[in-house]
Amino acid sequence: MKKKRFLTVLLSIFLPVTTVFLLAFSNLISKKPLNHPVSSQHWPAPKAAKRPNIVLIMADDMGYSDLGCYGSEIPTPNLDQLASQGVRFTQFYNTARCCPTRASLMTGLFQHQAGIGHMTKEPNNAINYDYGVYGYRGEINRNCVTLAEVLKSAGYHTYMAGKWHLGSATADLRPRQRGFDRFYGLLSGASSYLDPVHPRGIWSDNEPVEKVSQPFYTTDAFTDHAISFLQEQQDPQPFFLYLAFTSPHWPLHALSADIERFRGKYRQGWDALREQRLQKQIKTGIVPKQWGLSARPDIYPAWAEQDTTKQREMDYRMAVYAAQISRMDQNIGKLVDQLKKSGQLDNTLLVFLSDNGACQEGGVLGGGQIADINVPAKSGAISYGAVWANASNTPFKGFKHVSYEGGISTPLIVHYPAGISQKGKITATPGYLIDIMPTFLEVSGATYPTQGNGQTIQPIEGKSLMPVLTKGAKQLHDFMFWEHENHRAIRFGKWKAVGMIGQPWELYDLETDRTERQNRASEKPDLVAKLDAKWNEWANTHHVFPKGTMKADFRKEWNFFKVAN
């Protein structure tokens, strides 16, 4: 019965949609900004006389095992090289969703504190993601500061190329208005790679680009503009570059030459691919053998059950997805080459991660028809399917949206030759998005403000990763917390409690079972009660509650959260 209930809940998430996921709660609170305690944190200047440049690169909807250095068969030589000369984290976490991750990453706060507990408002969006309460306004608020604002105040040039997705309904929400000197990219959450048009089109600084020059591919364009920003800088001041790719988020758009490299390579199917990736992860030290492989959900068919035509189609879908990742890696190589040529690579702190686990949106066997793939005008959920996403998240269960390890785990690569002596190290120290802001503050010597934007700024939540990177620290946080769409989790040392929407807590020992195969909740009720109390304490002090109410309740029509009794 428990297995059936789990599968029923999962199935409700795998519907071919990209619309709304949130239960309504009452008791609205004031829309006025809240006052928060003044932060007492101060970050000392780094020991090095020359402050480093900072490059932050984010992939979009990429699974835990999709890079070569994390177990993939997809060639990613440039990221692999950065990993071999830097540090790889095996237990780094995001929020399980695009814009909440970006809100947390940019502010050093939990996403609810920044006002994006769910999704963001966009121009011409039929759904209004402002729920009328502090944690769910659908836009980044003014009780926080962005990485760009803090680093700019410390004398850094600040550049961004790629996906913003932190609100765009009004002009004051754009990147240029939140600390970036230059911007080229998307304000929205997704668009065509080949011919983006408004309202999901390209912006250059504060101006919409009405028509892009062809041939065009977003991954190339974002990187080219990022490099141009660096080349145009004439003074010796350090820079902060945020390069936020849309790869490999749907739609399935890739360049023909890249696709041809992968066609036919996935005819062994998703089950064989998961096992292949797991063995590589074990061999390279990313995953301990004892964790094993999470079971393929029963609602997913076996590869052998597909006829030849469907197998050919699914091979093609995965080939396009692999091509998207390959093209992203090629572009990261272009950026690294530019840093080498300018003599800046050694003194650049470069961080790479993904915004959530692999994406199951669009359906079990993918969204859209095979004829829709690579059609420039198609910008919706033309996707590779939950079966391939399950392989992308090897060895974990769960996906984008949920708080199982497959939803919240991301590769994290840190490369900083001038500041990190460890080369090729793999660390299992847990960390998450709120730790990026304090890390950048520490290396830059910037000071986190207590006042800004005409408001009191909320105290920073995270801790610097530098003790992990330079001294091998084993623990940063006593407790770690997650919530998205009422999927929740809390981690305490090796123990993790996770709850799907409307379901009781499950409990897993991540030291021996990070693939979350053996629920220990019934064995340790006292620990579950302790973690439940701690999670609720966090949720009630970090604007997870109250939830508010959607302006238009599409949930009644779609019945997304039907749960078996």
UniProtKB/TrEMBL annotation:
Organism domain of life: Bacteria
InterPro entries xrefs: Alkaline_phosphatase_core_sf (IPR017850), Sulfatase (IPR050738), Sulfatase_CS (IPR024607), Sulfatase_N (IPR000917)
Domain Sulfatase N-terminal: from-to ranges: 52-445
PANTHER family on file: ARYLSULFATASE FAMILY MEMBER, ENDO-4-O-SULFATASE
Protein family per UniProt: Belongs to the sulfatase family.
Swiss-Prot/TrEMBL keywords: Calcium, Hydrolase, Metal-binding, Transferase
Pfam families: Sulfatase (PF00884)
Gene3D superfamilies found in the cross-reference section: 3.30.1120.10, Alkaline Phosphatase, subunit A
Protein's name in the database: Sulfatase-like hydrolase/transferase
Molecular-function GO terms, alphabetical: arylsulfatase activity; metal ion binding; transferase activity
CDD domains: PAS_like
Keyword GTP-binding: no
Species this chain originates from: Larkinella terrae
Keyword Cell membrane tagged: no
